[in-house]
Amino acid sequence: MAVGTVLVTGGTGYIGSFTALALLENDYDVVIVDNLYNSSKVAVDRIELICGKRPAFYEVDVTDEAALDKVFAAHPEIDSVIHFAALKAVGESGEIPLEYYRVNVGGSISLLRSMSRANVTNIVFSSSATVYGDATRFPDMIPIPEHCPIGPTNTYGRTKTMIETVITDQVEAQRNNNKKAGKSFDQWNGALLRYFNPCGAHPSGIMGEDPQGVPFNLLPLLGKVATGEREKLLVFGDDYASKDGTAIRDYIHVLDLAKGHLAALNYLREHKPGVRAWNLGSGRGSTVFEMIKAFSKVVGRDLPYEVVDRRQGDVLDLTANPALANKELGWKTELTLEDACADLWRWVENNPKGYRQDPPAKFLEALKAKTS
């Protein structure tokens, strides 16, 4: 018997697919909606290969309210939503801002309206540490706690901030309206998960990040340099006030991040807190040069890079203070940076075409031996 049924928007994407897997492994049923803009339906097959359970899948755009209504109607058992579906490139967001607001903010409003009609009352939102902007502008805010003032420095971060506000207003309004009407109100809850830099792949070697086109994150780009698909890595700025001049980020293994979403969902269902924000990060900051060194070590050779100008909207340090999630959710990162690098390299080295190829037979055999 499933403990609940969760709709995962953007569930064939990188973090969405790993969260769908974590949900299935913890006795939830999963329904995925994704428009496959930057992902592959094959992720659903890989989820099933790993855990033996298959999520329901609908090719639906999150901005299409009527299509979302049909999914909720087909699955009246859905009681919660984990919302990933979004455009997510910082640089691109500054070039096509209207598209980012249309998809990210507009899509979230469509989803909340559809949830409201279907009486689905819990939402876990995949937000981002970019909502904090440059936390170094305040004293004692690195590593960044949840009470750090919000101040995004780019369009992508502003869309995430706006969605957090929309979710907060919606949950609080539904609670107040129900309270005034003498109805139960505490079923309306939202989790705002501000996370840092996800990385890594599944240790089985058959599931990982498979961006269509150019990836925007450091480790997938390094993976493409390591396989020879890209000539070199571009390092955006070496004039930051860090120990080696490159920007500092908090890298978190995607398996740990998926478990964080599961922990947040369980907390909403159990404690009914209204709206809560939690940082999901390791609390350890690594510079870009340190990451290049760590990944080069796993690959076994130095990877070429070139320093270029800073990107618009980038900040010096995005390191999480995860103390609140550690305490309230009973969640903390368990996997290391070295684990993430090793898992990513296993994935990209053995699956150079990502999901556009069959998984290596030796990995499938190892997986079958493990699950039988």
UniProtKB/TrEMBL annotation:
Domain NAD-dependent epimerase/dehydratase per the UniProt entry, residue ranges: 6-281
Domain of life: Eukaryota
GO biological process, one term: galactose metabolic process
InterPro entries assigned to the protein according to its UniProt record, in alphabetical order: Epimerase_deHydtase, NAD(P)-bd_dom_sf, UDP_G4E
Cofactor(s) required for function per UniProt: NAD(+)
Reaction equation(s) it catalyzes: UDP-alpha-D-glucose = UDP-alpha-D-galactose
Family of this protein: Belongs to the NAD(P)-dependent epimerase/dehydratase family.
Function: Mutarotase converts alpha-aldose to the beta-anomer. It is active on D-glucose, L-arabinose, D-xylose, D-galactose, maltose and lactose.
Oligomer and partners: Homodimer.
Full protein name: UDP-glucose 4-epimerase
Organism encoding this protein: Echria macrotheca
